[in-house]
């Protein structure tokens, strides 16, 4: 058997000489290789071999019998060669099997066990090495020969992991490869409950990566079911279908909405695959929802605690999911049994040759092994990542380490119900402009040309990556108090990495930011204005705004952002209705309050058509505070309209004569029309006119009143003969109609909208 190691000096090859009889009995893969019409079943043509070439270590004597003290062992280093030759000293022909990517010690241990050489068998080893052994066993399907050894390791080493991490995934792979059915299912259930997404697992040769994909899909399904149920529960509490009464549902709804803000999966609601979130931790957060301390007070007894909680309403679903996880069977996902499902396929070796030896001939297969590369990393080990270095200050003493660049999705999504199709633009409309100058170093992060057919390029593009930006702590500290605190905390923690100048570079870790946006902010802070793009799009401007707000460096960015804003506004008008761009401009003007007229104008157009927080998926746009206050204002204004309708109804109920025309017929006619309108609204179960007025905008409620088909008052009917109903478009106003009586209320609402200012949203 042989192995090749690539070092700086030379390529090293290791050979192992083994018995074909043992290999064929232990492994159906070797049986097919050595008996089938493949190049491995024939011996190489004899050639002259240098006398200095060492002879491979042997399992037994030259006649093929296995000696009692013989061991499979690595041989000395061989110079690399393009062809492997048959040594003249071998009495029987050899056959060659080329192997790649295995750990030579792991393969040596498997071969020793297969050949019965167990005097140095390790009862205990590292889990990482055992995973290498399991990978070899799985690939060559030699579980039959490794069964006893695997059982020994199971009894001496295995224990169910107490927490999710690298060891959990390794044991899952080991259990799958060795066919430990009970262990595998327990680990699979543990993985579904505690794993945090496949993006956090980097594996180049783990045999169970397809299994992990299935288990992760189940994890995503479980989390999706919980999120869906919470959303449904909020709807049920809103319309009174959940809870034991109006007060109960109101209390629970308020509690649920408040707790949602602490769950990053729900506020804003993140889409699958929920990277970084486990089902177990998520259900723990739900179980820890605060219980409101309230109760009913009777006439003759003290207050009694109320038993309804969010957890009691969620408990049936959580129990159902828990049972579903325990009953989850991997075989139903296309895997019929525990153990390798790998099928032998023809090697990429030479075409089949007719065998030169009978099946009874004695021979030794010679296995060539290339260097190992099994690597499993949880939370993206930097040594396996692609690294981009960007120097802001060559003499800097800090490194901004940006992991998972460009993961922050800041373009919000708006529910389309009742909105024009332009409400949601594709994310591509907000892509960054082409990179130029020094920023072209980030081109690979924005490359979208790769397709599934470009296997190698696609893997390079989508592999985990980090960006390291060298900066000056002096510039950072002078920018903001927050930066000063960050720098001080990093220095006190002593987190640094070596640099070529031997000066330690302190590391400040961050994640998710748009790489170009972060680079532009850092360049601006360091005064590197030359080369910063003069023209950018709204999407990049918002990414820059998000970075500036987080690190509280708005003052440094004020000049640049003002120039970019002017350029973008010169290319097209500002939005006048509720849309994604309005939300983005609202956020920009909130972070940079110098835009005095921009914030109120965006707030006004959003407030008119805004239907509540549930209508918007902010993704990672940090606009929750502003939208929360806008939603409160929406509820307040709709509440004023509802109160106005109630006042009109009460007035009409007691009014006997129309004050405008001294008519007895107008009040009952108007009252009947009003009651019909309000009754129809009450029957709207999707969005009833009940606080918090779910999916109701101010403009929609006003239009509901203005467009209601109301009869022309009797005392005015003689003036018109073309229609019996008041037209909402001809500008006629009848003071005794519903619209006329509500006009002062509408004027008051419009005045409140027009008076919006930044100060209303502070604090």
From TrEMBL:
Q: Could you tell me which residues belong to the region Disordered?
A: 32-86
The scientific name of the source species is Fusarium gaditjirri
User: Which InterPro entries does this entry report, sorted A to Z?
Assistant: SKP1/BTB/POZ_sf (IPR011333)
The UniProt regions of compositional bias labelled Low complexity, in chain numbering, are: 37-58
Specify the protein name.
BTB domain-containing protein
């Amino acid at each position: 058997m042989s192995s090749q190691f690539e070092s700086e000096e030379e390529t090293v090859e290791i050979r192992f000489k083994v018995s074909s009889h043992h290999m064929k009995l232990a492994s159906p893969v070797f049986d097919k290789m050595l008996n089938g019409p493949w190049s491995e079943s024939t011996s190489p043509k004899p050639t002259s071999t240098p006398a200095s070439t060492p002879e491979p270590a042997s399992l037994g004597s030259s006649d093929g019998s296995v000696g009692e003290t013989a061991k499979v062992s690595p041989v000395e280093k061989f110079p690399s060669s393009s062809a492997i030759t048959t040594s003249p000293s071998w009495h029987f022909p050899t056959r060659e099997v080329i192997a790649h990517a295995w750990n030579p010690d792991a393969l040596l241990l498997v071969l020793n066990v297969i050949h019965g050489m167990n005097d140095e068998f390790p009862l205990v080893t590292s889990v990482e090495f055992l995973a290498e052994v399991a990978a070899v066993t799985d690939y060559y399907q030699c579980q039959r020969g490794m069964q006893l050894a695997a059982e020994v390791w199971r009894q001496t080493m295995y224990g169910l992991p107490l927490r999710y991490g690298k060891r959990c995934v390794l044991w899952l792979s080991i259990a799958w490869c060795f066919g430990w059915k009970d262990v595998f299912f327990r680990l699979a259930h543990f993985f579904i409950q505690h794993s945090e997404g496949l993006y956090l697992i980097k594996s180049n040769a783990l045999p169970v990566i397809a299994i992990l994909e299935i288990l992760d899909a189940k994890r995503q399904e479980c989390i999706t079911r919980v999120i869906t149920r919470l959303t449904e529960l909020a709807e049920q509490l809103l319309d009174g279908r959940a809870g034991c009464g109006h007060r109960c549902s109101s209390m629970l709804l308020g509690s649920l909405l408040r707790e949602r803000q602490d769950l990053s999966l729900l506020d804003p609601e993140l889409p699958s695959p929920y990277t970084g979130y486990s089902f177990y931790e998520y259900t723990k957060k739900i179980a820890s929802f605060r219980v409101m301390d309230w109760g009913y007070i009777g006439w003759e007894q003290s207050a009694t605690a109320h038993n309804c909680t969010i957890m009691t309403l969620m408990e049936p679903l959580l129990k159902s999911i828990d049972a579903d996880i325990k009953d989850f069977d991997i075989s139903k996902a296309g895997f019929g049994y525990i153990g390798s499902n790998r099928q032998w396929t023809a090697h990429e070796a030479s075409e089949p040759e007719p065998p030169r030896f009978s099946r009874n001939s004695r021979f030794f297969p010679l296995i060539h092994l290339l260097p190992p590369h099994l690597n499993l990393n949880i939370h993206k080990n930097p040594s396996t990542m692609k690294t981009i270095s960007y120097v802001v200050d060559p003499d800097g003493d800090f490194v901004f380490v940006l992991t998972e660049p460009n993961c922050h999705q800041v373009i919000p999504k708006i529910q389309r119900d009742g909105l024009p199709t332009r409400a949601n633009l594709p994310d591509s409309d907000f892509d960054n402009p082409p990179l130029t100058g020094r920023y072209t170093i980030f081109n690979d992060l924005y490359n979208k040309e790769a397709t599934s057919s470009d296997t190698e390029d696609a893997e390079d593009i989508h592999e985990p990556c980090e960006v390291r930006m060298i900066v000056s702590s002096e510039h950072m500290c002078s920018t903001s108090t927050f930066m000063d605190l960050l720098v001080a905390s990093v220095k006190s923690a002593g987190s640094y990495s070596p640099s070529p100048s031997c000066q330690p570079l302190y590391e400040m870790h961050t994640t998710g930011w748009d790489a170009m946006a972060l680079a532009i902010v850092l360049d601006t802070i360091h005064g590197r204005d030359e080369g910063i793009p003069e023209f950018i799009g709204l999407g990049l401007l918002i990414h820059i705004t998000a970075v500036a707000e987080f690190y509280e460096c708005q003052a440094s960015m004020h000049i640049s952002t003002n120039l970019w804003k002017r350029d973008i506004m010169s290319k097209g008008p500002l939005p006048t209705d509720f849309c994604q761009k309005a939300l983005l401009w609202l956020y920009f003007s909130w972070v940079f309050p110098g835009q005095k007229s921009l914030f109120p104008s965006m707030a006004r157009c959003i407030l008119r058509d805004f239907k509540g927080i549930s209508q918007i998926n902010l993704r990672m746009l940090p606009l929750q505070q502003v939208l929360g206050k806008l939603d409160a204002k929406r509820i307040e204004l709709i509440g004023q309209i509802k109160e106005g309708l109630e006042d009109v109804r009460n007035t009409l109920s007691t009014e006997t004569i129309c004050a405008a025309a001294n008519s007895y017929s107008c009040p009952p006619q108007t009252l009947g029309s009003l009651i019909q309108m309000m009754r129809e609204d009450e029957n709207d179960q999707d969005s009833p006119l009940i606080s918090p007025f779910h999916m109701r905008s101010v403009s929609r409620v006003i239009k509901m009143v203005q467009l209601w088909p109301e009869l022309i008052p009797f005392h005015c009917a003689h003036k018109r003969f073309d229609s019996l109903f008041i037209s909402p478009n001809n500008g006629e106003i009848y003071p005794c109609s519903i619209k006329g009586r509500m006009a002062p209320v509408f004027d008051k609402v419009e005045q409140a909208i027009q008076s919006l200012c930044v100060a209303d949203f502070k604090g």
